[in-house]
Amino acid sequence: MRGLDRLRGAVGDLERAVVAFSGGVDSSLLAWAAHDTLGRDAALAVTAVSPSLAQGERQECAETAASLGLRWREVVTHEMELAAYRRNDPDRCYWCKDALMEALGPLADEERAVVALGVNLDDLAEHRPGQRAAAERGARFPLVEAGLAKADVRRLAREVGLPTADKPAQPCLASRLPHGTEVSVGALGQVERAEARLRALGFGEVRVRHYGDLARVEVPLGDLDRLLGVRGQAVDAVRAAGYRYVTLDLDGLRSGNLSPAPGA
Prior knowledge:
- The protein is of the alpha/beta class.
- It folds into two domains: 3-159, 3-Layer(aba) Sandwich (Rossmann fold); 173-248, 2-Layer Sandwich (Alpha-Beta Plaits).
- The chain contains eleven helices and seven strands.
- The strands form two sheets. It has a four-stranded parallel beta sheet, sandwiched between helices. It has a three-stranded mixed beta sheet with strand order 5-6-7, covered by helices on one side.
- Helix 3 (55-68) links the parallel strand 2 and strand 3 (72-76).
- It starts with a helix and ends in a 16-residue tail after the last strand.
């Protein structure tokens, strides 16, 4: 059976769905499949709003949802009120997803629906305690149930014409803080401002790792020379966000490199 047919089958089993919609390719494909398979009245895409969501990403969620004709809304999550989340231990994502499910639960009850998250097969091999929190609260992972890895998701997204098919991964802003560094609104804002300024210089895929007054900038290896070519502008951009020192990681961008290895 084709991947798209398997996904339709997994989504169809839900009958009604509330899809956690972050605007990335995984949640976009899942939201599209729910809308297309179940119908608009039975599928609701919901974007969680908190200090860890960059304003640019929030706007893109709204635009993507509108372009796909999704029934969409925002909901505020309150993970910043949890000391266990702010402490930023390796299980931080558990508390983030727990807060997400706390916010989505009433909507799912209202919709008489199941909460669905855009987790793919590759995610299962990574350190993502948030998946456990979501599963404990009854969430379903239709992409996993359909046997779809990240490459499959991108291929299907292109096949159905999704605007996010080639969108780079954009994890939450808290992922830029090393474990043990307290998550604060101030730190998240610094990261957001620094990355926004670097994107304005033409670097679409970038991470600014936060170490107090030092920022460690990561871009894909293919962009290192280009970043060095505008070194002065890049340094000014990051310092304008509130950092004193700016460093460049010569290993390039590695998504999730501040997370412990699975099983660690």
